[in-house]
Structure formats: structure tokens, C-alpha cells
Amino acid sequence: MLLTLSQWLGHDIRAFNVFGYITLRAVLAALTSLLISFLLGPWMIRKLTLLKVGQPVRDDGPQTHLVKAGTPTMGGALILASITVTTLLWSDLSSHYVWALLLTMLGFGAIGWADDWRKVVAKNPKGMASRWKYFWQSVIAMIAASWLAWMAHLPAQTELIVPFFKHFVMPLGTVGFVTLAYFVIVGSSNAVNLTDGADGLAILPTVMVAGALSIFAYVAGHAVFSHYLGLPHIPGAGELVIFCSAIVGAGLAFLWFNAYPAEVFMGDVGALALGAALGTVAVIVRQEIALFIMGGVFVAEAISVILQVGSFKLRGKRVFLMAPIHHHFEKKGWKETQVVVRFWIISMILVLIGLASLKLR
């Protein structure tokens, strides 16, 4: 919106042409989403408190979490609103990638909203039935994957890139691309959701991964840089930098309210949507494996749940004291803040390893 306005004004006032640079718009997008979240955050927390949209807490979880009962949840709506408004303001709205990202994120956010609403307003502790949640996630992910496949006009846009190997790529074809994209989007969505179980635990790794993906997007969208670094050139991928920057700004502002002791929780509305957004960006820029590396904390959380459930059903025994794995460490005596900060450090290391793949090939 503002890009179109600046281009129109740029015909008469050359100074407005500076807004055509993706790097400047990325900085402005981060600041815009940060400001929106900071301004609306206190109001939303008061509103959620008045509506008594309080987080239910499991009785079998860490005892230190019992004091969190009643803390406002569904705060992820604030993040999604900030990202959406910012993206519409600073992105090139003629980009199909921008719309694919926005609609996928908001679609998964709607699923999370329905699940949260049933839990905290309708007082149904189970929320949306798992089969229906997975069904709607699958529908949206398949639509997004098929849309991205339809928009792919170059072989590089459907090849699987293996980090740290310069010439090792795997042609996927349409069916293979759609299948991989589906699993990446749904998997990353649920992985982030499982990680969102301690104050600030999920949001900062999300910010770090989004920031790293913005670098991949910038390189993929730049013909010279992508050729120099040996990465596939994805025309139009540069606009994803604006979207990722909006996640960074909104996420950092949300962390202000979500840091221990949290004033508000993200809820499924935020976690499912942000996870799906990260997965979709990774699919577009062909960095699914890099996402797997950089989002290692999310992956570990998801695997811990799979192992726990699988072991209990097959052997009648648990692998961990409690899953997801961050609760296991809390049960072992780690303080919640220790778990969170240590997982942040691990995330930072993994993100740096993922970024190293830009050059170490």
C-alpha cells in the first residue's frame, strides 16, 4: 500500500524512490509491527482479562505452572494483527508469495482461534477435536502447497536443496513438491505449538528463525547474490523479507508481555499460525532442511511428544518424565527460566549453523 503510494509520488519527488529498496522497507516493517504490538498490547491484555479468557493449566504438569491458571491467552491474535497490517502497508501487494503467506498464516490462525475459544470460553478442556484440527490444517496446507506449485515456473523452485552441499539437489516434481510442502507447513505449525508451553519459550526462537529466513529470502530473490552463493534464484522471493521482518518486530514486542512471569499467552491462535508461516517461507525459498536445523528446538519438542506417545502405547512406559521435553527438564528440577534461556541459547546456535550454510557449501 505505502510502496504503491511512494512509487506514485516518486515520479515527481525522487526522494520517495528510496522506499523501493527492500532493506529499508524491512527495517520499517519491523519497527511498524513492533510499534503496533506495543500500542495494542496493554489494551488487548485488559480486554482478554475482562472477558476472562484465562489459560487452563494441567494438574499433572509442573507445580510451578499452577499459578499461571487464569492468565489471559489468545494473545497470538495481537501478533497476527500486527504482521498482517504491517505486511499490507510495506509489501508489494502484487506479489503472489505475499498473499500465499498471509492467507496461510491467517488460515492456521483461525484454526487456533477456534481451538482456544472452545477451551477458554466454551470451557471445553479438549478444545477442537484433534481429527478436525488436523483435517483443517491439512486442507489449508494442501491449498497452499498446490498454489506454490502452480506458481513455480523454474526447475529450481521445486528442487530440494541440501545445505552444505553445493551441487547436491533433488528434483521433486509437482507431486513431490506438494507432498514435502504439506508436511513442512503442517509439521512446523504443530512443532511451534508444542513448544509454546513456558513463558517466552516459543516466541524468541520464532523471531530468530524468521530473521534467518529473511536473509535466505533476500538472497534467493537477488539474482547476483543467489548466483554467487550457489542458491536457487526465486524471482519475487525478496518480498518475503518484509513479512519475516514483521514477524521479528511483532514477536519481540509480544515477548515484552510474554516474558516471565507472562502477562499473556500466545495460545494456539498464534503458535499454529507462526509455525505455518515459517514453514511456508522455507518452502518458497527452498530451505526446508535449513528450517529443520534452525528450528531444532521445535523439532526436539515435537519428537519428544511422538516418542512419549508411541512408547506409552506400545510398551506402556514413558520415555520422559513429561512431554513436551521442556516439561521433562522442569520435572527434573530446572527452573522455568533456566529451561527457557537455555533453549534460547540452543536456538541461537542452531540458527547460526543454518546461516553458515549460505557460504559453507
Structure commentary:
By secondary structure, the protein is mainly alpha-helical. It has one domain (22-159, 170-285). It contains 14 helices and two strands. The chain has helices at residues 2-10, 22-50, 76-90, 96-120, 130-151, 173-195, 203-221, 223-229, 240-258, 267-284, 288-294, 296-315, 325-331, 336-356; strands at residues 159-161, 169-171. Strands 1-2 form a two-stranded antiparallel sheet. α3 packs antiparallel against α9. It is globular and about 60 Å long. It starts with a helix and ends in a 5-residue tail after the last helix. The model has no long low-confidence stretch (mean pLDDT 90).
Features:
361 residues; mainly alpha; 14 helices; 67% helix; globular
Structure in a nutshell:
The protein has 361 residues and is mainly alpha-helical. The chain has helices spanning 2-10, 22-50, 76-90, 96-120, 130-151, 173-195, 203-221, 223-229, 240-258, 267-284, 288-294, 296-315, 325-331, 336-356, and strands at 159-161, 169-171. It has one domain.
